[in-house]
Amino acid sequence: MIGRMIAQNILRRPIRTVISVLAVAIEVGMVMLVVGLTHGMLHDSARRIGGLGADVMVQAPHASMFLGMTTAPLPIKLGDRFAQLNHVQAVTPVLFQFDSSGVSLIWGIDMESWNRVTGGFAYLRGGPFTGPYDVLVDDWYARQNHVRVGQTLHLLNHNFRVAGIVVHGKGSRLFIPLVTAEHLAEQQERASIFFIKCTNPGYTDDVIHSIKELLPNYTVLSVQEYMSLLTSNDLPALTDFITVLVAIAVMIGFLVIFLSMYTTIAERTREIGILKSLGATKGYIIELILREAGVLCLAGIIVGYAGTWAGRMLIYTTFPTVTVELTVRWAAWAALLALTGSLVGAFYPALRAAQLDPVDALAYE
Amino acid sequence: MEPLIATHDLKKVYRIGKVSVPALRGISINVQEGEFVAVVGPSGCGKSTLLHVLGGLTRPTSGKVLVDGNDLFGMSDAQRTRFRAHKIGFVFQRFNLLPTLTARDNILLAQQIGDGCNPHRFASVTAMLGIVDKLRYRPNEMSGGEQQRIAIARAIVCEPKILMADEPTGNLDSENSQIVLNMMRAVNREFRQTILMITHNPAAAAVADRIIRMRDGHVVSD
Lengths: 365, 222
Fold this sequence. Notes:
The structure holds two protein chains of two kinds.
Chain A: H1 2-12, H2 14-50, E1 56-59, E2 74-75, H3 78-83, E3 88-99, E4 104-109, H4 111-118, E5 123-126, E6 134-138, H5 139-145, E7 152-155, E8 158-166, E9 174-177, H6 178-185, E10 190-191, E11 193-198, H7 204-214, E12 219-222, H8 223-230, H9 236-267, H10 269-277, H11 282-318, H12 328-354, H13 358-363
Parallel strand pairs in A: 4-9, 6-8
Antiparallel strand pairs in A: 1-11, 1-12, 2-10, 3-4, 3-11, 5-8, 6-9, 7-8
Helix pairs in contact in A: 1-11, 2-8, 2-9, 2-11, 2-12, 9-12, 11-12
Chain B: E1 5-16, E2 19-27, E3 30-31, E4 36-40, H1 47-54, E5 62-67, E6 70-71, H2 77-87, E7 88-91, H3 103-113, H4 121-128, H5 144-156, E8 162-166, H6 174-190, E9 194-199, H7 202-205, E10 210-215, E11 218-221
Parallel strand pairs in B: 4-9, 4-10, 7-8, 8-9
Antiparallel strand pairs in B: 1-2, 1-3, 1-5, 5-6, 10-11
Helix pairs in contact in B: 3-5, 5-6
């Protein structure tokens, strides 16, 4: 019977129902997409850094672990000093350029040293740079954007010719010559990062130790350590960011359900008076309101899951190189947060309804 | 025989801001099991307040109410709510059916809340009140008389000791009023249902076995 009452109440107030369901759906979608987007991009980035074949990476002091946020403060001549260290086989500098028009991180590379560190690209079509405004794209980017060799791409406010399409998995999805990147960034002889290949991976710690002695304040990490940091589910740099966004999402769901149930109680004061005159206990009325909020929330969670999937499709269409990693763990967390927020939001209105005076409630117009 | 309802010097004073408005000024009445009692009087004489107090919906300012031997206001709120669900059924002037539920569900709701009600009673009550063919309709699809018969069915489906009716014919035309009164009379006779009916309509009161007249919060004749 409670189920039928809840169903009828939900169906009789379609606008309230739709708003409540959408609020919870937005909450769920926001949590899943934000977390999925950050983790997806980081994990994808980690995989591609791992695919370089380098053993050590060197950044400026206090550099961000998010490579896209790294500027170009390293003198390129440092590469010569790293190359002279024991057990270092090859060193290559990279200058990052962020292209906001396509939300892409473009790597400026020195092809000769890049090939020594990474073993070079595997070309599916075309070949290496032949001019300063040539660009290499990976197969994934090419497929998503229908890019062909010889085509012109507008990047960093300049036109680039697609010189080649390479197998994905090495650092970035877009590469331009280092000198061009330096010119566009107005950063001559500078790099964002150095990747170093050891003569044997077993010497990684020795090389890191040597660099730290040479440049005590610089950020020096093994590629393995960097990958494990990025693939951690509790990445310290992201925890605060995710917590704030999740809190905002939960507040949205909480407030909408609170207002929805509060106004519902005001509308249904007389009905609550009837239930009380029939002998309904406070517990019965609280249960009725909480179950109604729970049903709205469950519908919101389902719509939220569907919306998340649709949102991911939209992101993939709009920003093809972006990865959204949706996990069962965060789907469960999003549902749990939404349900908790909704029940907490509905509790005060439910308590207020349970405490209504039956005679006053019955007289309510 | 011990009365089913007994009140002793029942007083109820409403406070509206700094003003005290006495509604009951010392009511002492007894109602025996199986009686059909009408409480009559002009508007504002306190008869609805008396019904709310006897039904455990409103606490009196002073005095005592014994229902079936239990001190109604010696109980906790929760105990009184459970007591009301099992011992007292209400019929109101405005029917007070839940608009979202069908007639059947409105009646079954009382059985669910009254936990432990005899499930077979539903069929006998709906048949006796002649509403079997109305059970699938919602309140807004029925006439006032039909709605009030559903409300009576809901009130007595759990075999309460007392049926309390507050102006049950107040919203009905004379034909439907007579039908509802006949039904209440029949319920009283067939199920030996104790009924306490508030009305200002002398014709309605005439159906009862006994008439209590009130004025200005006092019982003036019994």
